[in-house]
## 1
Amino acid sequence: MSINEGIQASTNKLTPNILPCKINHEGPVNASERYWSPVPNNGNNTSPAAKTLTSHFRGRKLCGKSITVPEGYQGVVATPVKRELKALENATTDTNAGNSQDGYCEDEKEAIQLEVLATFDEVVVWGHEQAPLDSTDPYIRGVEEWIAFAAQVHSTSSS
């Protein structure tokens, strides 16, 4: 799998929102401010509560928590693209297949590549009536735990 960064991907910045409901649509939505206008809580405070937002969706109150992408990482919105790639494969079992040369044969294979559509620096996770808790929300825990796990896997130990 490989990632192709589109020409405009670096200029397309957005903030993904993870809502606590199922919507049978994937992709951008031209929502007017009348229908979606999240309001920050606690003004310009630097407390953890300052990263919370409040909005309403279909008459229900939603509280969101903004999660910043950790330093050294980049959030991307990508879509899979299937492409035919020519690859050299070691032809160890069938060296007399006709198109092999020096133990290798050219073979076309389908590869899945990810095309970057946009990037983001933060994501907002929403909950009903209250902001999601760090200890129980799978998205918040996933970001924190996987980043910590990846750091441990890639760290060099002197033992």
Note: The longest strand covers residues 104-120.
## 2
Amino acid sequence: MGLITWVGNLSAALRAGFSPAIIALRSILSTASTRACGKSHPKHFLPVERASAAPPDMSTTDLTTTLTQLQSTPSPSPPKIASLLSTAKRQLLSLDALLPTPGTPPQLLGLARTTLETGALLSIRLQDPDAFTRYFQQLLPFYELPPSTFQPAGDGQRSKVTGLYLLLLLTKGDYAGFHTVLEGLEVEKGGSTGAGGLEEDKFIGYPVKLERWLMEGSYDRVWGATKRDGVPGEEFGVFSEVLVGTIRSEIASCSEKAYPSLPIANAKNLLFLESEGSVVEFAHGRGWVVKDGRIYFPLQQGDGVRSEKEILVASGQVIENTIGYARELETIV
């Protein structure tokens, strides 16, 4: 500090009524502060004025507002939903709540979990299974939190989201992934309930029953369960339709190999189609020939056509093997 500047400050202080002792003390503290922040110290030691922290509930309020808009009735338009979901994820990131941490408050954990569950369910309505899968994977750390860390009020949407994920795995034919998730649920419940105990939950029990009927070949029961009255929730209808389509394609592939042709009326029942017009449309989509009220399978035309006797023999072998499997299952049970 220059002499002229110091004298000027001293005059101003005396005029303001400060005593000489206080003036001397201020001068000493000012000089010490200047030396402490001088060139001999690194720049990162310079005193930086800390920005005042935002009110703790400000961002949480924003996230709550976004969540309310996502859950509003009637549901927003698909573009609006996509925009709100992106906003919600940015807000979760700003709150450091996209993944649970030991320092995350329980109230914020519940809000984050509800937001991700809402995003998962809305992704199904947008018919975006990939986005739904990502939301489910993000929810797993929340579902695996011990009760001592976070105890939600009720189950929330966990059963519904988990049941939908199981159904999605069925539509993809991922039976290994299906049973992996199922075994995890059984272990979590103590390992004593088994699949039978999980069937008591209407959301998880729905895909469990469908998987068992698929393994049994009871496609008619699967078809009946995918009707509107048999579906446990609106979102399940999306994946149920995909599952029926998968079953229909499997039956069609088997029919091409088992029969040279089929009457349209029989094919309608076999393929679970509503009308003969739907059968004709489906047949054209697979390259089948429709003629004189029958469907002819191109793979069985020409030299590769098998005789009716060969078809009956092959069918008899299939029936005999099926009965044998059933007897073995009864023995195991």
Note: Residues 68 and 289 are 53 Å apart (CA to CA).
